[in-house]
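>> received
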Amino acid sequence: MRPRTLTKAWCIAARRIPRLSQSYHSYEHDLTPSYPPAEDAILAAAIKHVPAYGFTSTALSSGVRDAGYPDVSANLFPEGAFSLVKYHLVTERLALSMNVPTSRSTGSSSALDMVRCLTLQRLHANKPIIHRWQEALAILAMPKHFATSLRELALLADEIHFLAGDKSVDTAWYTKRAGLSAIYASTELFMTQDRSPSFRETEDFLDRRLEAAQGLRRTVGNAGQWAGVQAMGVISGLRSKGVRI
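>> returned
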């Protein structure tokens, strides 16, 4: 197991150091969420009601009122509760770029530690609504939302590796992201059942998955086999969420 002292202190330091430049960001997607001002205001207000009401139309309606819009404004979100889930996914993914640790501030330059720290940051963003996250997973697993769910998971894996400084241009670009997608999905699901202090068991679970992935990458014969193994990991995670595959 990786020594906890350095990596835990490192992640805490990263959360305290705001990023001063926005140039270090993925080329694949925009820096800011593509939400019109009214929708952004409503969804931001509605997210605050999720701990009490869950990812529901009630939370969305409460957000409409808190943002100062008429009740009919809820019609701006024809996908209902899924709009809230997607807003959380998008905004928390983009928030990672605001607190990227550096080797100078943390005393470490390991790419794996960077990936671990950023993955933990994203998981910790679920803490205020973790008791509601299984509801969100059920919504994401619906067939009509399945493609968007996979796309957001892929974008998160891309974002974490990009911010960690990954410069891969060959098949490793795909295999690393496929692997992290599987690891994140399984760890997030584990976290919904974790009752340990400060989600210590979730952190241990993530460490085991990351270390196992490192060993597997060294032993699997080629990129195609590696991608296949990781794809099966993603499929198993989705099946555990109720998706029929």
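>> Confidence is low (pLDDT under 50) at residues 15-25, 219-224.
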